[in-house]
Amino acid sequence: MLTVRMAAxxxxxxxxxxxxxxxxxxxxxxxxxxxxxxxxxxxxSMVQNATMLDMGHLQIHAPGYRASPSIYERVPEPDKxxxxxxxxxxxxxxxxxxxxxxxxGQASSxxxxxxxxxxxxxxxxxxxxxxxxxxWLTEDDPKGVIIGKALARxxxxxxxxxxxxxxxxxxxxxxxDLYYVRGILKTVSTQIDTGGLLMTARSFRELMVMESGAxxxxxxxxxxxxxxxxxxAVAALAPGLETLGWNKLNPAMAELIAVNDAFLLPMIVIxxxxxxxxxxxxxxxxxxxxxxxxxxxxxxxxTPWGVFRxxxxxxxxxxxxxxxxxxxxxxxxxxxxxxxxxxxxSFSESINISGVAMSSLVYAKVTTRSVLLPLVTLLVLVxxxxxxxxxxxxxxxxIDAMRHQ
Length: 405
Known about the structure:
By secondary structure, this protein is of the alpha+beta class. The chain has 14 helices and 14 strands. Strand 6 and strand 7 form a beta hairpin.
């Protein structure tokens, strides 16, 4: 305690320098707490959007389907498989896919038809809540379809507009029928936005003459459920089929998250190097200003370790004050951004990363990591920067120090 009291007394002797040093450290800490929170929130939102809106946390396909999609490669008895998966506490929905030509008036565009069970899809994913105009699919409206936002603009259609679909059915016959736009989706993903057309699974089977099977089974997991054990559990229920987690289904997104995690600490360190230089300069000035004082202390019996400890204690007091101020400013701002978000609409209405559409409103996420990583890194770098001045002070010769001009 005596060392701490002496350190605090010494700092008050140079109030202006101490305040500037504390302010610089606190500002850097607050900024990095907010930055880390925003990056954690952004990456978490990207995974949430990709998994809960479209992809699911894991998917089941027939072997080889993803490499070469074919209407004939199907998962057998998807209804029974979904019941087994739901018995594990997960949610499940199956999809059927086919390509077709959609036409309205003089406009036409290639589309990917997606047949879904309206109830299963609504229970497993959040896509039904992203209908911007109109309503979600229902079994009692077999001719109603939902299309992507960009596709609606390309075909120049609105709610209740008629769309002609032309394709080749599973039996080789011509598949064509007239449907109407029941709903238009918000921006979800590049694929759905520009070419997605959703209809009920029953309507899909009638159009494509496909009585059984599904091309994809999407599974979503309860919050905080580990992915790899869940993939293994579901794979055990689907022998002979390909079961993959979202990190394998979208490796670009998984790699982006890994790169962000890898570069977060170096980013913080680079930012704090400037603060470490300020601390180094300040403590060197302290040592040079107090050469005689340190020499007198050593002459009166203070050991080199005592002098070293005193210089380090001064930095520790500055660091504690800066940590309190930095967290006091950074945490409330990060918490505000966690609940209200950061609006980037002035730059872009939506952000597309790895095929996943992100909202222009970015939310931070305050976690233990987003607080401790910037805080601990700052304290470590600052203490390391003080080692040289502290060692220099501890090695002063009392006689030479007393003669120092």
